Amino acid sequence: MDIRLGVVRGIQYGLIDKPDTFAPQARELGAGLVRVFFYWSQLEPEPGRYDWSAVDAVLGQVDDGTELWFTLGASSPWGSTRATDLLPASPPLDPAAYAAMLRALVGHCRGRVRHWQCENEPSNALFWAGTAADYVAHLQGFHQAVKSADPDATVVLGGCPPGVFPAPDRPDGEREFFLQVIDEGRDAYDVFDIHLYGDPYLIPRTIEDARAAVGDKPVVVGEYNGPLPLQFPEVFEHLTEVIEAGAIQPWHRLTVQDLFDGTFTPEPVHAAMKRLYDRMAELPPALQMFMTGCPEELEARRHRLNADDLLIRNMLALSCGIRLTVCWQLGPDTPEPPEPYDFLQLLFSKFQLMAFEGDSLSVRHPCADAFAELSSRLAGAADVRRVEVPGRPDAYVFELVGTGVEVAWLRPSSPSSPSAPELPALVRNGATLTSRPQFTCAAEW
């Protein structure tokens, strides 16, 4: 399989706004795959009435050179165990009804959509209101319906969130969830999806541990991005109140109307986040740069770190034999500004390659330029191979095999001081390496 870089469009395409145009922008960045989320509620608004309008909006703008990956959530106000049109998804009340919709959808898209994913991060109660056994049964029905409508399609296991692999030092409910699904649902999926957030230098161990669990199943990276605020130790004490207010507790129910109204953030969290914003000027720069309306120099710093992080994560993953990585995300779901007092927005809202200008997704951030350059440099690469530098454990050098190009950087001593590596400078092929990844000409020492 050739190396392919992809992008996630977003988590609610066509749900709260009309379907927009995004495929030409993804193509310009060099993305060879687009991942799009859909929900049972929008695909079958009422029993027996199918609506493929959002799906057709995607099919109508994607060319033959772009693979499609659809992630489906079994969320329905009438068909799912926990009635909602958005999240969390839950087991269908009538699995046959869900399977009928799925067969019709896959048949409608036959030959156009390569990857079909059964839910997203089902071990996380934010996204799946059911047990591991519930998910296995759901996955088995999903697999049968997809394969009956398109035998050549691949079924992707619901994305595995960060922290499940590598093995935690203590008992972990999400890891046990996935180990049960991997074991009991082994014949009901073709591809295993891992999500690489958090410390990028854990990526090789994460991939190794995931492969040990799934055996001969291909492993892909369905989401990645960074850095997150929690990667900076100095921010923890300032987020304690928000976290203790229950910021990452499961939603009882999140609906599309909640997104319209902006009422999906619990009041204690909203109040704690407002107090955090009231003292933004006193907070560490490492936290301010993730906040809406931060000073321009801190916004520029975060953009720079984000662009560098994109290269680092891809090099570490691709050098471990991964052949598909999918960046979260191409751009915001709608042109509306983010809700600053939502904790999940603080964590993830700036993970965007592009931004809207009016109703058009047309503004490229520095990370988009980094993505585009990496995609261009990877064209024709047979592999990505790490080149060890004797005596320099801080040196990360990767050869894009067959292209004459390397990507190289020095690992900083801490994420808070990325410009101050502890070991002496290293010159590689005429370039002085720093903590910022750079492309150099591959040559012998």
Report what the structure shows.
The chain folds into 2 domains: 375 residues, TIM Barrel (Alpha-Beta Barrel), CATH 3.20.20.80; 59 residues. It has 14 helices and 16 strands. The strands form 5 sheets. The chain has a 6-stranded parallel sheet with strand order 5-4-3-2-1-8. A 4-stranded antiparallel sheet has the order 11-12-13-16, with helices on one face. Strands 6-7 form a two-stranded parallel sheet. Helix 7 links the parallel strand 6 and strand 7. Helix 5 packs across helix 6 and helix 12 runs parallel beside helix 14. The longest helix is centred in the C-terminal third of the chain and has 23 residues.
Features:
single chain; 445 residues; alpha/beta; TIM Barrel; 6-stranded parallel β-sheet; 4-stranded antiparallel β-sheet
In total, how many domains does the architecture comprise?
A: 2
CATH superfamily of the largest domain: Glycosidases
What is the SS-derived class? alpha/beta
Helix content: 25-40%
CATH class of the largest domain: Alpha Beta
Radius of gyration: 22 Å
> Counting H and I runs of at least 4 residues, what is the number of helices?
14
Order of helices and strands: EHEHHEHEHEHEHEHHHHHEHEEHEEEEEE
Strand order of the largest sheet: 5-4-3-2-1-8
Q: What is the count of β-strands?
A: 16
Level-2 CATH architecture of the largest domain? Alpha-Beta Barrel
- In angstroms, what separates the terminal alpha carbons? 31 Å
Estimate the mean pLDDT confidence. Answer: 92
Outline the biggest β-sheet: 6 strands, parallel
- Ranges where pLDDT stays below 50 over 5 or more residues in a row are none
InterPro entries: GH, Glycosyl_Hydrolase_39
